[in-house]
UniProtKB/TrEMBL annotation:
Keyword Methyltransferase: no
Class of this enzyme: transferase
Any one GO molecular function term: FMN adenylyltransferase activity
Name of this protein: Riboflavin kinase
GO biological process: FAD biosynthetic process; FMN biosynthetic process; riboflavin biosynthetic process
Organism lineage: Bacteria, Bacillati, Actinomycetota, Actinomycetes, Bifidobacteriales
PANTHER family in alphabetical order: RIBOFLAVIN KINASE, RIBOFLAVIN KINASE/FMN ADENYLYLTRANSFERASE
Reactions catalysed according to its record: riboflavin + ATP = FMN + ADP + H(+); FMN + ATP + H(+) = FAD + diphosphate
């Protein structure tokens, strides 16, 4: 798989590359945030059609997220600067690329999303793809939209395809997940009890559901969507989110020195530097996995090799820098982990530190030294809300219980 980084000029025009002088392309377009089951179906269909017609399979991926760019601009009057943190992003670019490489795409064109680019009509955009990339087929999900003001929906794109006859629109139908209602506005809310929380509407009658959705001021969204997955994670419903994703949700970052209190009570943790790559679920304690991705500086050099601004518009082979093998299910760099997200309620009164942190305790008898390493933390299930304990002894007993619960959950995933 090859990566090409593209930055629109000040007018929003992209200098699309010529991928081949002899082969046409089957193209899909999107953010692919989370690379959930719906995204995977679209990407696999793109690869399948390309191979059938002896074309190149191409994904055009936007970064940063269009929703983030527009929300930031609306709130601040200007577009976000490069590197501005997007706390709503489910997955970083490299995680998306890893999954795309596994699916078998030939090219991923990473387009830097700007407000000027957003002002281009969908007709202009698609004309560019036909003329520059040799697009013979466009593969989209059934709710896809593109172009200025999101005017280009499936119906209008289909009409354009039929009228011009220069490309085919292929719509990938979703697989029965339907729609759900979530609050139009919500705050991350940690479950009150122990264990993975259930859907609050699961046991309600139709009348109770109507009353509940009216009470929360709900809106309808597609169940299989990044929006719904983000909402589920904000409520601690990790297993429901993972079902929609088709894989475990995770975040990535560099391990740094913390207060090291865990060492003193027998539970040394890996503390991740903020901001993280990926969406941080609501505060609480989770069962999951800690994966060592290797030296953070080496990882950064691999990324810079692919995304150096000097390489803009140039095709670069995708490299994971050995990360792919470390992520494997039976990798020696993967350990069950009890994961804490929160503000350390037992100790923050005496330290004065009240920042939101992620700590992962690897449930293993081996000593693990991860300072300066990039790690991935994957979430398998919610264990309990954050609680303030009266003593370090009470906290130690609870952490031992969390470690046992983590073992039970991760052992079941291995079976």
């Amino acid at each position: 798989m090859h990566i090409i980084q593209l930055v629109p000029d000040v007018s929003g025009t992209v200098a699309w590359p010529t991928l081949s002088t002899s082969r046409k392309s089957v193209v899909t377009v999107g953010v692919f945030d989370g690379v959930h089951r719906g995204h995977q179906a679209v990407l696999r269909r793109t690869v399948e059609l390309a191979r059938r017609h002896k074309c190149l399979s191409v994904a055009i991926m936007f970064d940063p997220r269009p929703a983030f760019v527009h929300a930031y601009a609306e709130a601040n009057g200007v577009a976000p600067q490069d590197g501005a943190p997007d706390s709503g992003k489910l997955t970083g670019v490299d995680e998306r690329l890893r999954m795309m490489e596994e699916i078998g795409l030939d090219f991923v064109l990473v387009v830097h999303y700007t407000l000027e680019f957003a002002d281009k009509s969908f007709r202009f955009f698609l004309g560019q793809l036909v003329g520059k990339l040799g697009m013979r087929a466009l593969v989209l999900g059934e709710d896809a939209r593109m172009g200025a003001h999101n005017e280009g929906d499936i119906r209008k794109i289909g009409t354009l395809a039929e009228a011009t006859g220069v490309f085919e629109l292929v719509v990938v139908q979703e697989h029965g997940d339907g729609h759900v209602r979530i609050p139009a506005r919500y705050e991350p809310t940690s479950p009150e009890g122990r264990g993975e929380p259930a859907d609050p509407m699961a046991s309600m009658s139709k009348a109770e559901r109507r009353a509940y959705t009216k009470k929360i001021g709900s809106r309808e969204v597609r169940a299989l969507s990044s929006t719904n997955i983000r909402y589920l994670l904000s409520q601690g419903r990790v297993q429901d989110a993972n079902t929609l994703l088709g894989h475990r949700h995770g975040v990535e970052g560099t391990v740094v020195h913390g207060e090291e209190r865990g060492r003193t009570i027998g539970f040394p943790t890996a503390n991740l530097e903020q901001p993280l790559d990926g969406y941080l679920p609501v505060d609480g304690v989770y069962a999951g996995w800690l994966i060592d991705l290797g030296d953070a500086d080496a990882y950064r050099r691999t990324q810079e090799k692919m995304f150096d601004p000097a390489e803009e518009g140039v095709s670069v082979p995708y490299e994971s820098g050995g990360v792919k093998s470390r992520l494997a299910s039976h990798s020696p760099y993967r350990w069950p982990a009890a994961i804490s997200i929160g503000t350390k309620p037992t100790f923050n009164e005496e330290t004065g530190v009240d920042g939101r942190v992620l700590e992962a305790y690897a449930v293993t008898d081996d000593w693990i030294e991860l300072y300066g390493h990039r790690v991935r933390v994957e979430f398998s299930g919610f264990l309990r809300p954050q609680t303030r304990f009266d003593s370090a002894e009470a906290l130690t007993a609870e952490l031992a219980r969390n470690a046992q619960e983590t073992r039970a959950i991760t052992d079941a995933e291995r079976d």
